[in-house]
Structure formats: C-alpha cells, structure tokens
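FORM 7B: Structural annotation worksheet

SECTION A. Query
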Amino acid sequence: MEIKILEDRTNPLLQRHEIRFEVAHATAPSPTRENVRVELAKAVHAAKDRVVIERMHARFGIAVTRGSANVYETADAAKAISREHILIRNGLKEKPAASGAAGAASAPAAPPAAEAPKPEAPAPIVAEAPAPAPKPATEPAPAAPAPAKRPRAAPKKE
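SECTION B. Predicted structure
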C-alpha cells in the first residue's frame, strides 16, 4: 500500500492541516480506515490519534482510493473540532449505546406486584351514520329526446 499526498493546506483557525491523499493498493483489497490512518500518520510525522480521516472513496475497477484527512495540532483539538460520527468512524470515540435497550438493562427491574395497574382503554365510540331521508314522491322526469342523426358524407374519390 503506497500513500501519496496530493494536497496539504494549513488551516490555523481550526488548528489543523487539511490533506487530500491517494492510496495505491494494486495487490490488496481496499484499505481499511485504520490502515490508512497509520500510514498517513507515518507520512506526515504525526501521532495516530491526531489524524482524522474525513472520507475515502475507492473507485470500481481501479486499485486506487482517494480521500481527505485532517491532521490536528493536538488530540484534544481533534476531539473538540471534528464531528461526532467522524470520530466514531475513526475509533477516537465510542458509539453511544441505544437509550431503550441500555436503559432497561442497567436499571433494576421492579417487582411486578409493585407496578400500578394500568387503566383499561375505553371502548371506542362508534357513531352510526344517519339514515338517508326518504325521497318525496314526484313524477318521473321526462326522458330527454334522442339526438338527431346526421347523414354520413360519401367518401371522396380521387
């Protein structure tokens, strides 16, 4: 796996170097984010915990992966500035546990007798449709006259 730095920009406001890179992996599958972080840290002479890979894209049929990364001045700056889901992808932060499953497992279960009985749901109210009003007795409407027929024109001979 060979890593090539395509662009290196300094961003002093965010305390980082923004790097665009290309990884050639002719004899191997697409590299993992962790492997690229290690190689990129070696290439820029930085600690691995300061390197945050933003994105990587492996194109179909080509053994080259392109991406972008940020190398922060300190690990604390990396954790404070980078987005949470990017830190989770890079292994710098743990994924938060789901609130429903973790909350139920960590809280002690109360005995079933201590629970208050749940009130029964009231029966749904079904409104009856009003009966249609009877029609007054009237004389039937006169039938409409049939439309007048027009004679067909004879086909033209040419």
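SECTION C. Observations
The two ends are 83 Å apart (CA to CA). The domain at 2-95 is CATH 3.30.70.330 (Alpha-Beta Plaits).

SECTION D. Sign-off
Analyst initials: ____
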